[in-house]
Design goal:
It is found in: Cell membrane. The protein is mostly helical. The chain has one domain (10-192, 208-405): MFS general substrate transporter like domains (Growth Hormone, Chain: A). Helices cover 76% and strands 0% of the residues.
Length: 417
């Protein structure tokens, strides 16, 4: 796969199947993202703190098994991990509509499903990031990541727009049946990929803590991975704080129903699609390091437009602000993932990905609880202000790191410092 003309990776059958599986899985995720909290808000009359706890349960998997997951995935073939995680999540999501039908649905059951679903998602995401370099080759990672990001963003545009009416028509519990079907299609697509995976290297010492420590030392000692790790962690903390109260704000302060919320999230995702389409051009022009620093720094302040609707600012401007935030975030993500993948040797890809995810997602349960607690204490609009300010400030320290002058993807793995 050294040279790919014209349509590039879409000429490769295995990538097309992988791409189709990604679309199905992402559509399922979009339905879950909207339907699960709406089950709590609309069907169980959950308060702000309970919505925060639900967000915490959804993301707690990274905190609980984030680091071991990297060591486990580095020991295993990646594709079976992806297929198994999809199947487990598909079954879990069916628990909610079955419990609703049996009149046994409670907030505690919803917490349990969210936690178990999150644990399986950790394994899927770590395996996914580690599998792509083997599938497309390191020389095509920017193209592969850009196409995947474009697919995810496109689904994020259409997903909430489809999920909103679906929730209004079927109800949030039954919408999760559609999510389960999407995950089954994702597993089927992954199963159809035929390219053999590289043989997993056997090592003499397979002690879990030693392997986790090796991954941590590599990431924390790397001049590019380290600043990305810390800035990403801070950004994610404030992003989840913001997102935890966004649905509450739109539902209870702006007065939107399921369709309006879905439309707002679709507008936000439209910015992500635009970011995916321009990312390669931006990265080529200014370099991946500056893209990581500048893209979110220039766009995150627009998140402040949403709470300004309380002062009479139009909702369409707030929606445009969310789209701009999403656009900058996707450009950053494509540049960042490319740097992480090209700077890491194959045998450490799982542990690198897990370390990044542990920091990026490990604080999310705290952020969900913090967002819920602050929402109950200060109100949802104040939480949106706090989240927007934190997202804006998160990438200022990155400008003082070597990322600021990194104009090319690493061609060889540099020795950690």
């Amino acid at each position: 796969m050294s040279r790919l003309p014209g349509a590039g990776l879409f000429l490769v059958r295995d990538f097309r199947r992988f791409f189709a599986a990604t679309v199905a899985g992402q559509l399922a995720d979009r339905f879950v993202f909207l339907a699960l909290p709406l089950v709590a808000i609309l069907w169980l009359d959950a308060g702000e703190f309970e919505v925060g706890v639900l967000t915490a349960m959804t993301t707690a998997g990274s905190l609980l098994i984030g680091l071991p997951a990297g060591a486990w995935v580095d020991r295993w073939r990646k594709r079976p991990v992806l297929i198994g995680a999809d199947l487990v999540r598909a079954v879990l999501l069916l628990v909610v509509p079955v419990a609703w039908w049996a009149d046994a649905l409670t907030i505690w059951l919803l917490f349990g499903v969210a936690l178990a679903h999150g644990l399986a998602t950790v394994l899927f995401d770590v395996g996914y990031t580690s599998y792509l370099p083997a599938l497309v080759g390191r020389e095509h990672l920017v193209e592969g990541n850009s196409k995947i990001a474009a697919a995810r963003s496109a689904v994020s545009v259409g997903g909430p727009g489809a999920a909103g009416p679906l929730v209004a028509w079927l109800g949030a519990p039954l919408t999760l049946v559609a999510s389960s079907a999407g995950l089954l299609l994702s597993a089927l697509g992954m199963w159809g990929v035929g390219k053999p995976e590289p043989v997993v290297e056997a090592t003499g010492d397979r002690r879990l803590m030693r392997e986790i420590g090796e991954g941590l030392r590599f990431v924390l000692g790397h001049p590019l991975l380290r600043p990305m790790l810390f800035t990403d962690g801070v950004f994610s903390l404030f992003l989840v704080t913001y997102q935890t109260m966004l649905l509450v704000f739109l539902s209870r302060h702006v007065g939107l129903g399921s369709f309006g919320i879905g439309l707002t999230l679709s507008a936000m995702a439209g910015g992500g699609l635009a970011g995916a389409l321009v990312a390669r051009r931006v990265i080529t022009r200014i370099g991946p390091g500056p893209a990581v620093c500048l893209a979110p720094l220039c766009t995150a302040p627009a998140a402040m437009f949403m709470p300004m609707t309380r002062a009479g600012w139009p909702l369409w401007l707030a929606m445009a602000g969310l789209a701009l935030v999403s656009m900058g975030g996707v450009v950053r993500l494509i540049a960042q993932v490319g740097l992480q993948q090209t700077a890491t040797p194959d045998r450490l890809l799982g542990r690198m990905s897990a370390t990044v995810r542990f920091v990026q997602w490990g604080g999310m349960p705290l952020a969900g609880l913090l967002g819920g607690a602050l929402g109950g204490l200060l109100g949802a609009p104040a939480v949106l202000w706090i989240g927007a300010a934190g997202m804006t400030a998160a990438f200022l320290p990155a400008l003082l790191s070597p990322l600021r002058t990194t104009r090319e993807m690493p061609t060889a793995v540099p020795k950690p410092r």
